[in-house]
What does this fold into?
Amino acid sequence: MTGITITTIADRPELADRLFDMEDTWPAFAVQDPLAWLLYGRIVAEFPEYVLIATEGDTVVARAFSLPFALGAAGRGTLPARGWDQILMWAFADRRRGTEPDTVSAIEVSVAAGRQGEGLSGRMLTAMRENARSRGFAEVVAPVRPNGKPAEPDTPIHEYAFRTREDGLPHDPWLRVHVRLGGVVDSVAPLSMTISGSLAEWREWTGLPFDEPGPVRVPGALVPVHCDPGQGYAVYVEPNVWVRHPLHG
It folds into this structure.
């Protein structure tokens, strides 16, 4: 993969507007998290040194978002069950209060559609680790969205997260990338992201009828979506897997 350049938006601010030009592979429902709508643009504006972009010539081929936060602050200390959503809240609260961060969390690593299988996700994760290390941090944590889990929506996340192959590496491909780069599977964030919507919205996002009560298996979802036609809504609570990346040197 020659010719690919990875840099921060702080170093190349002219690329900030191109972060979302890249066609990615996120399912439509996955970008409906209310905290993402509220805060994602602010990550670029307020934490550009933690936003990475990969370009090949003039083409954006991958992006990665991370955030600094104070894991050791009073009342914290452990990786949160609310995972992704909690990190967004903690990071921006710390920024507002002037609390000194001690950890960097991954928020997203995305590769352009059609560029999977080239090792770009691993390169972006490595660059994120190096970026955190260069800024004096000793650890990166990641609320990982296991990319093999949609094939097993009914498997409990606590079982899936710690499943390994004969070689001892994680069964899940994306968790495997993290572990090969030095990460350690730590725990589960059972309610890392919560997405609710009307039945009409879920029909628009998925093309599914959403007319029967109970669990609905949605392509790209890690667990079934809970549908309640009587009340007129459906809710998806996504679990993630916490991986810790100690940074040495």
Q: What stands out?
A: The chain has a mean pLDDT of 96. Helices lie at 34-46, 83-97, 120-134, 157-161, 173-180, 199-206. The chain has one domain: 4-194+238-246.
